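User: structure tokens for Lipoprotein, please.
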Amino acid sequence: MKVTRSMLAVAGAAAALVLTGCGGSDGGTQAVPETATGSLEQLAAEVDCKPNMQTDADEIRQAICKNTDGKFILVTFATDRGQREWINGAKDYGGHYLVGRKWVAVGETSTVTALRSTLGGDIEEGTDHSAHEGSNEPSDGATHSGH
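Assistant: Done. Predicted tokens:
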């Protein structure tokens, strides 16, 4: 089966939904090391996790990881463009993303913040849909008849 970018974005977004929840702030700032580089296995070793590979393709490699900081998805990319396209698609589903050069870690706020103290990188937030939870009404205030 050929893996397409849209399939990968959907898989990443689904992983983000599974792993993320409502999170608070990081509780303050801390020194951030230089952003780590390397293969998925090298990055996983840096944060003491044994990656459970989910996708192993030329363009993208994705694994589920768990360590003392929590459970997260670790993804590496062949190109910067592929990484940015994946992040842009996945962020529509919410989530918390630790972004390095050609890699992303996705997890809860506390997990991503803890990983940052080892891997460096920048934290990006997905779209917050919490204002829409529990509402069956359209967000634009319009009502719909049963057509």
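User: Anything notable?

Assistant: The chain has one domain: 5-20+35-127.
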